[in-house]
């Protein structure tokens, strides 16, 4: 019995030692990548809508009361310089104002003639002559203004002052309109604006002058390069996004029409000399802290990192890593700090 106990203890000890040696001899096969240092720019993909540029819209207003008898244009229609936009019958009260202005001019002319005669007979003063001349000038100016507004005839026509597109029509044919009414708006076909919707948390990375590429939502091939004109620091209550204004002009407008939906890529933050590693090389510990496994002389070492940005399958990180070092990309989840590794060729 004594010899048997010694034998059993010897066999058990040998088995424990063999297991420990086997565990120590485990070598993990992994694939690796190299830490790269380079400048990285972030791009924000957003959506928006095209419209006429407000700064180039012309309001066609009616300076007097009247009734529209012809309205031969529609919203969205292209018009040429001199084309008829509207025809209005002048309201009798407005026509009466023109007749009164004519009478005022005739009276001022007569009064000026009388003062001149009196002055020649030394029965009037030069100051009276000056006052009569001013009265005539004022009445003539008033008459010219009314004539410019179309009150010289019973029917007034409004014509386009330049080649344009009818942006909106705010009245209907046959409608009676008051003085000061806006009949329509004309927009420049080569002066457009684009309002892009940006998430509120991204506003801090965008400013006037940032580059942007815009294309029709259904035609990504027709890209146009422009720059941001303004960032409106308020949330649009309809879209729940912050509006970013881009102005297009000339050749930039050829692929776009007002009302068109667009997609855009905005160049946002720039990270100079950033450390870049594959996204799959980043793991998170139980405390939710990120880390990577660095390989040196066949040993894997855990290195804490901070993920600054994830983009296109890569991660921008900060930490104890250095450009040129080797990190594990495949097999990293099975590693513990200090494990031995051997690098297998990438498949």
Secondary structure layout:
Blueprint: H1 2-24, E1 27-34, E2 36-52, E3 58-61, E4 66-70, E5 78-79, E6 84-90, H2 92-120, H3 126-148, E7 155-159, E8 164-169, E9 176-177, E10 182-187, E11 191-198, E12 211-216, E13 224-235, E14 242-249, E15 261-278, E16 283-284, E17 290-296, E18 299-311, E19 314-319, E20 326-330, E21 340-343
Parallel strand pairs: 1-21
Antiparallel strand pairs: 1-20, 2-11, 2-15, 3-10, 4-6, 4-9, 5-8, 6-7, 8-10, 11-14, 12-13, 12-15, 13-14, 15-19, 16-17, 17-18, 17-20, 18-19
- State the shape: elongated
Q: List the strand order in the largest sheet.
A: 2-11-14-13-12-15
Radius of gyration: 41 Å
Instruction: Characterize the largest beta sheet: strand count, sense, and whether it forms a barrel.
Output: 6 strands, antiparallel, barrel
- The assigned structural class equals alpha+beta
Low-confidence stretches: 1-23
Mean pLDDT: 86
| Residue share in β-strands | 35-45%
